[in-house]
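Lay summary. Proteins are chains of building blocks that fold into shapes, and those shapes determine what they do. In this project we predict the shape from the chain. Here is one chain we studied, written as its sequence of building blocks.
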Amino acid sequence: MVHSAKEESKVLNKPGYALVLAGCLACASVVVAMPDSFLLGDGAAGPTCANYVTMGGMAWSRAGGDWVDAAGTLYGDQAFSTHSVPLGKGRQIEDWDVTELVRAWLDGRYPNAGMLLRVKPGVKNGVVDFHSRESPDASARPVLKLQWSDGSQTRLSPAADTYLDCTSLSSLGEKPSIKISGLQSALLRFDLKKTNARLQQAVLTLVSDMQYASGTDIGVYRAAPPYTRMPANTLTGLAKDYARDMGIEKNPDVVFATGFESPVWLTEWGYFGPRSTAEAIAEDAARRFEPFSGRALRVRLVKGQNLGLDLRYLFAKGGKPEPEEIYFRYYLRFADDWNPYADGGKMPGIAGTYDRAGWGMRKSDGYNGWSVRGGFAPRPPVDKSVARLTAMGSYSYHADTGESGDYWGWNEGPSGLLENNRWYSVEQYVKLNTPGVRDGVFRAWIDGRQVLEKTTILFRHTRDLKIENVWMNIYHGGTTPAPQDMTLYIDNVVIARRYIGPVK
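And here is the predicted shape, written in a compact code that computers can read:
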């Protein structure tokens, strides 16, 4: 496989998926892999009881939110600050000294994903309503007051505030109040900017006009969604020995590799759906395309249609035995016009459908077929915190699913949120289960960092089902057609018997 070195120096060093903090503008020493444009918000895609980002099911590890306490313990009980809010009449102004937490954010010791306010479990507590940043009473909105060593003061309003209530599936961040109780926790995030002066004191002030049942002890903890806790090290694989994948097809563990450079690239594949709208290109300036390595496959979702690409590597047709485990890596770039606001859809993955079951509402029963395609979620058009981001996941048909399959959000660290106009390494792994035993495995990585792992999947009840193909599928919706023309690009596809990893 021969690749051009055109614009090679621009490719992996572009800004985009930088190691930055969500919400701390001066904490470069903390290594957190998130898109530059992402900050934990409180809009339509904001946190709920189940998800830290509602778009694409980016789930908390524990329902109700994840936190780390002042001792550094995940789900610990040692709050950074605790304050008792009494049951009373009239307005109450309540303060928490959060100096140590804010100082740690400014020093770059922790990623700033916000503070989680919660009551201690097992203690008799009531319910407290606090004014939020959307409150019509501007004087009662939350504020973080910072006192600096040079005598100056800063007053910050929340960049986001919401509460997590497990009776609601939607974000509550645009409500005029936030509630805290034994069943509800509050999340507040402040954008911090470090100054030359040292922080002397930080005080969080909330205002309550309503309390119910009894007094309430409320502690402040550090919010810690999965992307803030996972290792940020890139996992290298066999690709590390091949600059820009050149010669990787000669590796004995590689089954197939292509960069779409050949004018007859279609002959390398086992099947190409005739309705696919895909072609190998080297230029596409109108959509801000920049080559990854020579030519790439451009796939268009045309307005009013669903299918963009149906391209398959069929192991048996290629003269290879159908495996029971396989790694598959490709490079992906969403174009400038990519905006899936109407519905989600399907992306490349791994399958054994045998044209019988495991896709399109054809239920998998463990004997007829299965699939784990990639997926993308719809993007709420009104939420600026996720503008130009796409939430990735997997859409799987296995023996424990219903007719419509399961969607698994790529919610581990780093988050599966991909920006437009940036190349990403996307890798997936499937190991089929022992027939009848729930020990099947699926893993996914973005840029060499794991974003999902499942280890108890029941793909099959018979060894007659194996890995039939790698399925390069781009499809909008279930039935909803694309609301506008949308484009993406694919390059450097590799299928192998061991982990591949990003290009050198």
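What the prediction tells us: DSSP finds one helix and 30 strands in the chain.
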